[in-house]
Amino acid sequence: MTGLRLKDVSKSFGEVTALRGVSLDVADGEFFTLVGPSGCGKTTTLRAIAGFESLDSGEVWFGEREMAGVAPEDRDVGVVFQNYALFAHMTVGENVAYGLRFRDTPGGQSKDARVAELLDLVDLAGFEDRDPDALSGGQRQRVALARALAPGPDVLLLDEPMSALDARLRKTLRKQVKRIQSELGITTVYVTHDQEEALAVSDRVAVMNDGGVEQVGRPEAVYRRPETRFVAEFLGENNVFAGEVAERGGGAGRTVRVGGQSFRVADFDAADAARGSHVTFCVRPEKLVAGGRENAVEAAVEAVEFLGESFRAHLDWEGRELVVRLSERPEDDRLRVGFAPEDAHVVSVGDRAREPEAVEEP
Ligand code: ATP
Questions:
Q1: What is the CATH number of the domain that holds 64?
Q2: Which residue has a Cα nearest atom 25 of ligand 1?
Q3: CB–CB of 41/192 below 8 Å?
Q4: What is the per-residue pLDDT across 220-234, written as a single tens digit (0 to 9) for each?
Q5: What spacing in Å lies between the alpha carbon of 102 and ligand 1's midpoint?
Q6: Which residue range forms the structural domain that includes residue 289?
Q7: Long-range contacts of range 106-113, CB-CB < 8 Å, 24 or more positions apart?
Q8: What CATH number is given to the structural domain containing 288?
Q9: What is the pLDDT of residues 160-192, one digit of tens each?
Q10: Do residue 28 and residue 172 come from a single domain?
Q11: Distance 218 CA to ligand 1 centre (A)
Q12: Are 318 and 194 in a shared domain?
């Protein structure tokens, strides 16, 4: 097994800059996910690791080995693509054995034994003689996974392998993939635009935007402490407030004025945030509570959605959209919501906060 390192990797296609200096470290045995909106460079990063893409500049390392000039088939990677069609004229067993065409079986097993072992690993024991078109979408992707794993690669690359499946099947398959990955302890880079999936399965995630990496960290850290506004809004929903520090408070707390309203926000480094500094902070929908007395505002209820375990209400507060999670459907068309000073997370201090950037819906 081996870790992976990308050093300052850049790649353009004509006028389009797909990657602008991407650096990443993936630890040995880690489940590492690249997440970001369509076109941000996830697939290009994966293809650079696999060797399918020549780089304009930068380096890719597998452990202690630099990969410049190493062909894809010599890189010890297994790849599963979004729609990696299985060969229709081959049985399931032959498809998995195809993964062994360039390699001896690990440990000198017979091909048949290796195929049976892999099909067992992906919960398809005994499916050797089936035709691929007699399989469900989820089963097909598991065969594709078995084929990628057959030669015993050091690194597994998964490019949106579940995106063609329905929501329920995706959840089942992602649990299986996670189980198989940790059973094998194989270094895995997983590409998805689905932020919920990224948070659910990964040891760490890299949030990408416009050819660059915005933030890398454990799912909880990236969700709770986004370092940029883009990350705050891309991973889960968020309420973003842009205002000015109104006064110097005691300790690390400050009063921030947003429009005509004062909010108390705890999350300041005592050193920064002089009076008048521009501040962007965010409050997750689940932290914006109805009837809260601290930092309370009154907003108009614009729309309510029933989510099963809760309601999501879209509010209008002085022309700003707020999103809250509620346990009950609001009865009035106005709602008072507030948040504890500790539940606000400061994203940036200093320069004038930029206008919100549109975040594409995944
Ligand atoms: P998606 O989630 O939609 O698959 P992505 O994050 O994987 O997107 P990439 O496929 O890496 O994004 O593409 C990054 C940018 O590079 C996009 O603007 C894309 O159009 C462009 N691009 C990728 N491959 C090529 C190519 N072979 N020729 C021209 N442009 C390309």
A1: 3.40.50.300
A2: 13
A3: no
A4: 999 999 999 999 999
A5: 29
A6: 237-349
A7: 106/151, 106/152
A8: 2.40.50.140
A9: 888 877 888 888 888 889 999 999 999 999 999
A10: yes
A11: 26
A12: no
